[in-house]
Target: Leucine-rich repeat domain-containing protein
Amino acid sequence: MARTALQNRFLHTQAMIACRLALGFDPLIVSRGQTPDILNFLSDELLLEVVKYVGCSKKEPKYGGIAPNGPKRLLNLAQCSRRLHRITIPVLYSHFRQSESGGSKALPQFMCRIFATPELASCVQVYHCAARDSQWDDNSLDMSAVGEQDWDRITQALNKTMDFNEEATEAWLSSIKAGDWDAITALLISTFPNLEELEFDSWSYTDEVYPRIIRTLTRAKEMQDRGETGPLAMPKLRRVSLEYWDTENGLTIRLLLPFLKIPSVRTFYGRMIEDENVEPTDDGNPNWFNAGLAFQTKRLYMYHSSIDLASLALFLNCFPSLEIFHYKNGAAGYASFEPPRLMAALQPLKPTLQELRVLDEEQHGIANFEGYPLGSLTEFTKLRHIDVNSTMMIGLEDPNNPGASDVFPQGQILTDAVPQSLEILRLRGCGVWVPLPMLDLIEHKETYCPLLTYVDLGWEKILYPDKPSPKEPYIHPGFTKDEAVKLLKLCEEKGVMMHMTVEPPKAKHVGYRDAGKNTRLTRWFEYPYDGYEEFCREHGCNLETGWQP
Model:
């Protein structure tokens, strides 16, 4: 029997077992195969849920991204029967993803399949590609598998783009024949009526290499402004992700605008955004800014970015309904980051912001006010979730220190910094400056943050596989053991859950010297550490540290 047939039978069996268990059959009876073949008795809606589960890898967000990996390995299941094919294919085509390692033939083949079977276009919800700068010959896609009938269908699709004249259509077709990624992608995303998400990796530092995509996005914005809902308007586009192609510098804010201007876009994720306003206009503003600029985006994520804070203030002022803002400084460019200056940029978000994450994990150590607190967030009346470096909420110095800076205070009283609406507080990189302010905050929770229910300070606790585990944390950065126990008890009394990552007991290691060769050696002992004490005594090692004097 051929391997494919075996795979089909296996997947069909998986579907059967999942259905039977879902309907309450005894697992023992199911394992013996004594239940009836019930696939034919399930509704399409129930079977669709099975299809989404069987043969799919675990859905995990891509690193720093905004979408799950989507269904995989469903093709064999689609070949089991006509009914399964009909139900499975829409799920299979809902997510199109091509990474940089996906080869140069995959996208042209996908395009041919879409135009050969037009109903598939309505299945595509996520379009994820590694962008290619096709002005370089080695970045052109391989079009050798595209046949004459395919070219006829592609031409027909181009003719439906409405506002492009015949000359422009011919030029577009010529670019597609040359394997131009921009030309192919612009045509495809104009074809999907249910497109919800665009994800582009390796985006270039200039939009000059993507003229057709930019024109397509601009047209979609104009059509949505007019209330049109056809595929060319991309009416269901909700999420956009752009990641820069290199490891230095990044995308300027101007390159983000064609995506953000589309009214339907609610979530934007950008990785490596770098804008230092190096070419300001005569009035000093960035060259992308105009006073009437406004976006409908509610969730904005900017990671590994470096933006001039004056430019960032103008940028955030363009989001009148922003609810979630994440900003991680570093990696793109070399600008210093000063938290108290960021507060001015955050001011426009006071009426709407619900979640704030600001991280500076790649500190350059050259900024005048690096390590200073952000300032008070009490006027952000809807802010429920704060996730920041601990110094941004507290600072490093006593806020009452008379020697503090005249420009910005070096310290901040935590109870004066949190809003009444706060529900979740996460402080990263906690040091010895955190325990006293945190104890004070939790003790007076009813006064300063009555809705607070969840705190994360980077603590860890041990989960033993063979005995009861202690309630107290094993790792508690910045806190002594007594301080950690006191805070944990206080949280329990006040109804606040302290997040603690659960870890298995860590291995112990013994460092010793080989007596014969005087070579430093290490030996590891996993829990329950059988033989650890005997080995330490044999080699004269400290039982507490495992090291030889």
User: Anything to note?
Assistant: The chain has a mean pLDDT of 84. The chain has 18 helices and 15 strands. Residues 1-92 form one domain. The first helix runs from residue 3 to 22.
